[in-house]
Amino acid sequence: MAKTKTTYFCQNCGHQAPKWLGRCPACGEWNTFVEEVIVKEEPVAGNWRPASATKTAAKPKAIHAIQYEAQERVVTPDTELNRVLGGGIVPGSLVLIGGEPGIGKSTLLLQIALGLKDMRVLYVTGEESEQQIKMRAERLPAPISECYIMAETSTQNIFRTVEHFEPEILIIDSIQTMHSSLVESGAGSVSQVRECTAEFMKYAKESGVPVFIVGHITKDGSLAGPKVLEHMVDTVLTFEGDRHTTYRILRTTKNRFGSTSELGIYEMQGTGLRQVTNPSEILISQRDEALSGISIGSMLEGNRPLLIEIQALVSVANYGTPQRSSTGFDAKRLQMLLAVLEKRGGFRLGQQDVFLNVAGGLKVEDPAIDLSVCAAIVSSYEDIAIPSSVAFAAEVGLGGEVRAVHRVDSRISEAEKLGFKQIFISKYNTKGLDLDAYKIKIRPVSKLDEVFQGVL
Ligand code: TYD
Ligand code: MG
């Protein structure tokens, strides 16, 4: 065994330093350096040629000579997961599912494991006991697969089991609880997490068994984040959502076998996670009468167009400086839109409190909701309701001009599908669009005034 060697690792990004540092030079986080024992010698820089490699050097192959068969993916009953993975589980792939504790990673994986028809799934848990997993399984839809549970944290023991058990899918929950005897530092440290992941990667590639690993993300960096693993694995999925709302979004942040702009939406219920196939329906509240301050905007999440409800409340500021508060929408952008409305629209918003909220707890970055934000603010200011059959999809510029957005056709189709009667888009977006081909009435506009004249 090599002699004991220690080094300092940033627990957030895995940056390595010979001495303790207060602030990580790589990711900028404070107080994240921890001393770890590493026994495996790191390769010396420049010494890239291992001693054994010189004799049996592999020959490079011409690209046309490489045999390739399209691998058959395992299609799960979970259509959201299939989409996010790019069409199903690829044999021999290593998928990392990251997310904050309590968001539902274990529930999602257990549900997938139980739903895989005629497959031997091995679910290794390092966090909960077998009884606890059973308790959770009782809440979920009845199993149709052969799912086996094992409480274990040593990777060597897992590989010993796997060798004769031969699962068809392996699930590791979570990577931060696993430890390999090849590395001395404690479970959850950067060097352990890296070593264990490398071992699972090797196993996945050699056996062709897909491996899912769970990785917790903590904001304070007290656990080695999955960030340090992202470059090692084939696919990185992040499970996001607010723990206090029931919606969860499964997003691909890296995928060697598919697109990264896909996402899946789930709702956490008492009986596990339910796939949400038509998210716009739940994001728009069901109301009979139109209320002032509410407008419907179109946003793209990945490739999916969603219609969301924007709520604004504008009221006279009675206490000193007017307040501007926004939930789910960038506060700076809100300030900008207010300034545009004031200067270009002539609305006296300077002495008004403005509160903005994106319904459903979503965070929106797509500039295409600008127009609906402006419409909601003006609607609240004037106290005139926007008809609930109207949607908006355009960006607003500093000159009060209504700008084009990308993929306007899919946004229009989504609004049409949901029964909207009118949609406001930018005049510059109409090129190549057949306005008469849609049932929904398309209202191309180039200036903010035209929108307000048309709808308020
Ligand atoms: P869990 O899957 O353990 O989260 P993670 O593995 O990401 O830490 O648990 C998520 C939460 O979901 C937990 O607080 C309980 C809740 N939950 C439900 O609401 N419904 C259910 O059917 C299940 C199984 C869990
Ligand atoms: Mg868990």
Description:
Plays a role in repairing double-strand DNA breaks, probably involving stabilizing or processing branched DNA or blocked replication forks. ATP binds at residues 99-106. It comes from Larkinella bovis. A motif (RadA KNRFG motif) lies at residues 254-258. Keywords: ATP-binding, DNA damage, DNA repair, DNA-binding, Hydrolase, Metal-binding, Nucleotide-binding, Stress response, Zinc, Zinc-finger. This protein is an alpha/beta fold. The protein has three domains: 5-38, no CATH class; 75-277, P-loop containing nucleotide triphosphate hydrolases (Rossmann fold), CATH 3.40.50; 282-455, Ribosomal Protein S5, domain 2 (2-Layer Sandwich), CATH 3.30.230.10. 24% of the residues lie in helices and 26% in strands. It contains ten helices and 21 strands. The strands form four sheets. It has a nine-stranded mixed sheet with strand order 6-5-7-8-4-9-10-11-12. A seven-stranded mixed sheet has the order 15-16-14-13-17-20-21. Strands 2-1-3 form a three-stranded antiparallel sheet, with no helix packed on it. A hairpin with a 5-residue loop joins strand 18 and strand 19. Helix 7 packs across helix 8 (370-382). The longest helix has 18 residues, at 190-207. The chain is elongated and about 75 Å long. Bound molecules: thymidine-5'-diphosphate and magnesium ion. The site of magnesium ion has 4 residues, from helix 2.
- Beta-strand share of residues: 25-35%
**Gyration radius, rounded:** 26 Å
How are the strands ordered across the major sheet? 6-5-7-8-4-9-10-11-12
- pLDDT < 50 stretches: 42-47
Helix fraction by DSSP (H/I, runs of at least 4): 10-25%
Which of globular, elongated, flat, extended, rod-shaped describes the shape?
elongated
How many helical elements? 10
CATH class of the largest domain: Alpha Beta
For the termini, the CA-CA separation is 78 Å
Total of domains: 3
